[in-house]
Predict the 3D structure of the following.
Amino acid sequence: MLEILKAIFYGIVEGITEWLPVSSTGHLILLEELLPFKGMSENFFDMFDVVIQLGAILAVVVLFWNKLWPFAFTAGAQAGNPSKIPWLRMDIMTMWFKILVSCVPAAIIGVLFDDVLNALFYRYEVVALALIIFGIAFIIIENWNKGRKPKINTLAEITYQTALLIGVFQVLAAVFPGTSRSGATIVGALLIGVSRTVAAEYTFFLAVPVMFGASLLKLVKFGFHFTALELGALLTGCAVAFVVSVFVLRFLLNYIKRHDFKVFGWYRILLGIVVLVAFGFILQ
């Protein structure tokens, strides 16, 4: 029961931090240092902190279904014909092609270097520094953007070149835990000239294939061999992350219509400093 309660707490943290540009992976790594699972296999958490994100991704699919699902049906062409004719929304299909282009850089890095990156960078020092550095970047970029009119104000205006550039920024999150996938792609999009709202929405959609792919990779490496406790913890964490993500996504979309991202930059800097001091003291 205690481990399931931990999984609930992990799910709450994941649901909040996956979409806010503060690094969900970084928070989960730090949480694991403070509140580790007991009685589970050695490699369980390495898989858990990625696969739990499936719950958060499902929230995107549910909330944005009409913008993500390209297939639809229209009434029959003949009068009185009750049949439905399937049709394809090319605007959504084009968006998916651009999202796949954005996925390529991180997919290459993840497949080739996942184990190496885990061994090198999944430490509290790296998480803390990434939190601070990208926190500063948010503040600088938002100040630089102040008064500037964005060049890209709709998803349809994102070109394949822009999509690839956003994907390159996403690689930073794949390499350095604590960077924040959403934070890296939003920073990159803002620099390119994408509006804050479109940058956030594109980041949400980009997370769907990225996280599904990363989760599948982790599950394959883990081997699908779960104890009852491990499976219960994973399903609980995913379910809680889904529910929390629904509320956080709605909050964030409303928030960015009236505010910038600087508050998250200051939060990252403060958290990074706290982590460096606290963990440095604990591990002395």
Q: What stands out?
A: The mean pLDDT is 85. The first helix runs from residue 2 to 17. The radius of gyration is 20 Å. Residues 2-282 form one domain.
